[in-house]
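If you are new to this repository, start here. Below is one unmodified record pulled from the training split, so you can see the exact layout before writing a loader.
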Amino acid sequence: MKKTTQFILAALVAVFVSGVSFAQASAGGPEISFEEEVHDFGKMKQYGDATTNFVFTNTGNEPLIISNARGSCGCTVPTWPRQPIQPGESASIKVKYDSKRIGPINKSVTITSNAVNTPNKVIRIKGHIDPAPKATTSPEKKESSPVVN
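And here is the target side for that same chain:
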C-alpha cells in the first residue's frame, strides 16, 4: 500500500511539473531573435566608419518593446526603434563605435525589452583599430629671391 501511495504521489508531481512547463511554453509573448549577436569589424583604420546594424525579429506572438539599449562605455552608442515591433516583423539596432581609439575593440550593448525568455540580451562588437597613416608633408620649396645689397 505504501508503494502505491508513493507511486501515485510521484505521478501527480510529474503531471504537475509538466503542466506548469507546458503552460509557460504555450503562454507566448514577445521574443527577440538576432541574425548575429557578435559583429567583428576585423582590422580597420583609426577614424574609419565603425558602425553596424544588428537585425532582429520578434519571433513571439505579442508586440516587442525595447525599453533601453546601453553601451558598455561612452565610446559605444546604440540607437534602437522606439515603436513596438509586431510579431514576425524585423528591425535593427544601430551601434556606432568611436574609432578614434587605437587597439582592440571588445564592447557590449545590453538590450532591455519585454521579451519573455530574454528580457536582457547582450550583443557585442569586436575588432582592432590600427593607427591612421601619418600625413606626409613635403618641405615647401622656397623660390630664391634676388638678394639686394
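Two things worth knowing about this chain: The radius of gyration is 28 Å. The longest strand covers residues 103-113.
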